[in-house]
Amino acid sequence: MRMNTWRGRRTIAADMLRLVIAILLLGASTAGGVGSAVASGLPAAIGVVIAGDDAQTRIVLDFDRKPQFRTHLLSAPSRLVIDLEQIAFGFGEGAKALNGMVADFRYGNMGAGQSRIIVTTKGPFEVQRAELRDNELAQGVKLIIDLGAADPKDFAAAVAGQDKPGAMSGPAVDAAVAPKADPSRFLVVIDPGHGGIDTGASGRHGTLEKDVTLAFASEFRRQLDARAGVTTLMTREADNFVSLDDRMRFAREHAADLFISIHADSIKLPGIRGATFYTVSEEASDDMAQQVAAQENHADAIAGVTIDAASEPVADILIDLARRETLGFSVRFTRMAIDELKGMARLINNPHRHAGFRVLRAHDVPSVLVELGYLSNVEDEKLLQQPKWRAQIAARLADAVARFAAIRGAGGQ
Predict the structure, then answer these.
(1) 271 pLDDT above the threshold of 70
(2) How far is it, in rounded angstroms, from Cα 410 to Cα 258?
(3) Mean of the per-residue pLDDT values for the chain?
């Protein structure tokens, strides 16, 4: 027994030594992002250290001042969610040093003045401690979280027994928003995919989908706003998370004439590249469309948002008729956009595909999801980062929108 106790103490001592070393190295790994995070004026998370093994893990989060926080658990997979007031993140590469029970570590803004950290674990766990302490070595405070391995039944009971967290994604617009102010102008809602804690796909050289989509959407908006008779709104204008339902709701509540969701996914076939246009359908046109739709529909779950299966309107006969007419317009715009890009941009084989994209399900707003390219392909990744290329593609898509707006304005079918 004495030998086992000594071995246990030695293991704890080794873990603590690794934690101390990690903390000492933390400054070098996060220095690049700390200054900008603190300069933002928001409370800042400036460091993270994760140490331990598959039975016991400690997470230490450094803040420049005391934050408001709360935690809750999610299952499938096992996750610890840390909800915070809106903060700035200065973790740098240090946040990617996963250890112990931690399989994944995500963080970002959720909109509505809130931020979130999601710790995905390798299996069921219990939170043994989650408390703030003054930082004895510098200014600020530390949030110390101790996780211990747990029995699956105990973890399931803890998930079921906790108070449900409040909605962290708030509606993209106020429910009282009136229809568009000027009915004579053709309103396009541009939807930069992903954002905040939901980074989307990653390229082979580290390009994040959420950054690519926002950069392109901003350029696309600039070009559309210069077109006579066209006006635009965006579902997000910064690095914030917006749920799939809120994106769709935003378009409907503003009485959009066209909804365009911008993406740049990764797929399992790195040789495939080029632009692809997707419209909604209950059945996918092919395996690739099914794969892309499954990835996009999983975005809310990645951000720790529970999908409300009852959020879609009841499909009565009037809604079904409206959906069919709307789909017809979606398809017509898609064909115009493909025509505009032919000969100028690379298109995938069979560039118009369809699948059950949740974000395209508004029954009364023509909706299209545009894959600008695929970050899983190195050539596409290079192009997606080039402002000149983005401007050229945006100009052609703006031409397609102008043609479509003229047809809709003339009452064309």
Answers:
(1) yes
(2) 15
(3) 85
